[in-house]
Description:
Shape: globular
Radius of gyration: 20 Å
Distance between the termini: 37 Å
Order of helices and strands: HEHEEEEEEEEEEEEE
Structural class: mainly beta
Mean pLDDT: 90
Largest sheet: 9 strands, mixed
Helix content: under 10%
Low-confidence stretches: 1-27
Number of helices: 2
Amino acid sequence: MKKILLICASILLCVSCKKETRIEPSNSKKSTQLIHVKKAKSAINIDGVANESIWQSAEWHQLDHLWLGDSLIETDFSGRYKLSWTNEALFLLAEIKDDTLFDQHQDPLTAWWDDDCLEIFIDEDNSGGNHQFNHNAFAYHVALDGNVVDMSTAEAGKLFNSDIQSALNTKGNTTIWEVKVLLFDDTYDDTKDNTPVELTAGKYVGFALAYCDNDGSLNREHFIGSLHVEGEDKNRGWIDADIFGTLVLEN
């Protein structure tokens, strides 16, 4: 009987060892819009063509919360996205239906938020908190030409092109964005080469997605986000990582 119990205990121990280890957030940030993200089993080619197997099986999530601007009609804009990951990076596939793509500034550091762009909010350890002029989290603006801008610790816009690789493919009014995002912890230094964090199953990541929509005006006309933001001021993601949702990385 003792032998049988010992064998059963060993089996249970082996099974429990195979479970994913949850890497909990480093503080008590409320986990909102919890999204479980499946790992890609093969390489994802960043070319704006969603022909990888993971994109066939990954779940669509809606980009449909108006953060800035007047009421939005579907013929002007609609958006949705999928997510995946490897040990190297987080991957995003976004389908944006926009009747006008507009990029008025040749200088990528001039009013980058007023051009059509994807905005990817990343908080590597899901800790939340202020990140306006620090790298506790990031608010990457990915422009139509592939330039990536966020605020630096010098309190000015800076290119972060080495952090993100993107490609887009437009047919009619539909643009497919494919994006590879390297994740960095809060030791990120604007003046140095930084080493990305290796991703593992069970990791929690703060995340939100938004789109800056401009149909030809001096300023963007709409700012559409992936989740509901409490209160009247919904344009807080570039300052406050507490509003981000939460990704859980899974095999």
